[in-house]
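Deviation from plan, reported transparently: zinc ion complex.
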Amino acid sequence: MRDAAPQTIYLKDYKPFGWIIDDVHLTFRLHPTATRVISRIRFRPDYDVPDRPFFLHGEGLTHVSARVDGHDADLTEVAGGIEVNVPHAPFNWEAEVEINPSANTALEGLYMSGGMYCTQCEAEGFRKITWYPDRPDVMARFTVRIESDAQNTPVMLSNGNGLYYEQDSTKTPASNVSIYQDPWPKPAYLFALVAGNLIAHEDTFTTMSGKDVHLAIWVRPGDEHKCAFGMEALKKSMKWDEDIYGREYDLDEFNIVAVDDFNMGAMENKGLNIFNSSCVLASPETATDANFERIEAIIAHEYFHNWTGNRITCRDWFQLCLKEGLTVFRDQQFTADMRSAPVARISNVLALRARQFPEDQGPLSHPVRPESFQEINNFYTATVYEKGAEVIGMLKTLVGDAAYSRALDLYFERHDGDAATIEDWLKVFEDATGRDLSQFKRWYAQSGTPRVHVQEAYSGETLTLTLRQSTAPTPGQPDKAPQVIPIKIGLLNPNGDEVQPTTVLELTKAKQSFAFPGHATRPIPSILRDFSAPVILDHEIDNERRAFLLAHDTDPFNRWEAGRMLARNSLIASITDGTPPDTAYLDGLGAVLCDTGLDPAYRALMLGQPSQSELAGLLHQSGTVPDPAAIHAASEDLRQAKATAFADFLPTLYAENQTEGPFSPEAEPAGKRALANAALGLLTRLDQGATAAAQYAQADNMTQQLAALGALLDAGQGENALDAFYRQWRDDRLVIDKWFGLQVLHSKPHDTAGTARQLTGHADFDWKNPNRFRAVMGAMQMHHAGFHHGDGAAYALLADWLIRLDPVNPQTTARMSTAFQTWKRYDPQRQALIAAQLDRIAAQPGLSRDTTEMITRIRGA
Ligand code: B3K
Ligand code: ZN
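Because the crystal trials were delayed, the predicted structure below was used instead.
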């Protein structure tokens, strides 16, 4: 069989498959190096589609046999699969192939992780399992029989409901058989199989119609004590989806399996979610508050896919945001409901600005619904996911909550069982609201981050806001049309009272004015409240006004944003002309930090400042070439200035926010720990690590232990604690990932590459494990000043490892190559250093399709 040569696929070329499958029967005879897969499928022609060659995908399969209606099939191998001579009438297909899960290091298809069999089929992994129309618009009911003759596969799971199970380990070889049936038609990308020596943490959930669902989180022996939190998160998610979206679970069982070797966070396979162990396993001793929060969100996300993704799936991969944007939006709503809504919103915006804005402002910019791709795995991006979620948030803002609910009800009613498109999605909103969404649709088609410029005028008791929008050209899109941008605004009077509660302005033209009459004193606008659109707001107001908003804004997001802007302005001024940190900002921030009426988690966010990478992006946009060393120095200076300015109250802030009693990962104690640890970071600058050392010695949870260790490393006192930490946790892979990452993150910029290089020589640097690889290489790219150190050592080290990883795991390699996406921001020397590394990677013989596409796009013309 030939491999598919790199080929560009276009949305405009979509054609239906032409055949319908009702049922698929699969038998797996598991063997670590020679698994047999037997498929029995009945195909019938889709008479609405013109007759065309019958093509099945397949990649890396050892063909054993194939029959059409009982006769040897007449098949031809073509790029990416086979063409088969078939009648234009219903027929039975029966094929057998052999695959080698042990040799599958790409972690796509059927592979082995720590002695257990598992699968990852999204987006196009099923074709590595058997011949099949591996496309999301082909939906079928699957029955799966798994056979194994090994002692180490007592548990064998697939999608749907378990029908039959038999294990006879007295026989030699042992004989295990299990049969699963999934009554819901699904595309092949949602297929899953797991087999191994696993232990279940079990529970039940009674659905809104009174059906009992058996729940299980399956883990390797030794991890049982890390499942309780995930199980609670699952039950909360199931309840929330019933309460808020009216969505009930639809199988008798729901299984989650934790896997150590996984390319991403988790996967929503029908009834059998597979999780990266880092995204489901947690105990107070081993997981941080941030881990707990992320686990809760990812469990919810995968669970919510059961309706938005599985019951209603995508017609083709260009529609990926149909399921991902919506499901991210739903998991964000869930987190806002479970925890603090303002804190959740700020965290989402921080993530959007950190990951999506750079993507949308660089060579990888693409629309939320891309129009072409070579490797679809390269489009599981922040734009599709996070900007995709923002687009849904805007739609909800524009139509209102009640209409949003009506539209969603209609979506589920009209499209259950469908492989749908963005057109279908928008149509339900148009039908439910009578609104014309043709201009709004540009959010799906137009890439780039719009800028909204605001100009204020006040006369005759009327405040007039003139808004202008523009979007810079992006690859393939030189000209941009105006979009529909919902701008939430409120007005305050000079004593801080709200004189105009939040209202939504609809900006639809390039330039538009909005008048607010009847204000005898000039009101102060608070614009883009709640970050109501994923845009860059240009609103030239002075720092005095920002300080006012920091003290008084009634919108929690904009209050935080005012502080953020002050920090940003202070930093930019010290980077560009050495201005010392802004004392008005420090005063305003100090007042907020001491306001015990404010949520500690919110205050902890207030204490943060723009990342160095964000500052580099801002400087670049304003026409200044960013100097990573100067940005690093200014950031450190501002932190030092905070430590000095807040010296009087930092010990109190730290003490007041200690938590009592047994550890709880709930939002409230987690918020206190976040604030105490933020205070600890500053205190460490004043007491040379004394408080951190005490905290490290007493810590009984990972949040406290890791924060103390980081502070000790910053104070140059971390050596002993680092060794002790390693000895304590050497048998816990997830904690040792943190140990690797922390050392790189807390290294001095001139030594970041050196630290990372040295860690890659550590006996535990299992580089084929994506979590471990990311722990070191991901941390190195996150350390802005270290990664962009002028000697180029980090660029070269990353390129070395990408070159090494590519033949083993193209998907993770391609993902990690995005570290270079911002290269055009920097000076000619750094650009030349990065270009040389990009060219070196591109020149590797046999470079994967995934990495080739990424490097080519990043390198640009
Ligand atoms: N749908 C999966 C991601 C699959 C990524 C394939 N490269 C997880 C998620 O978004 O829920
Ligand atoms: Zn998803």
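The longest strand covers residues 175-186. We consider this an acceptable substitute for the interim report.
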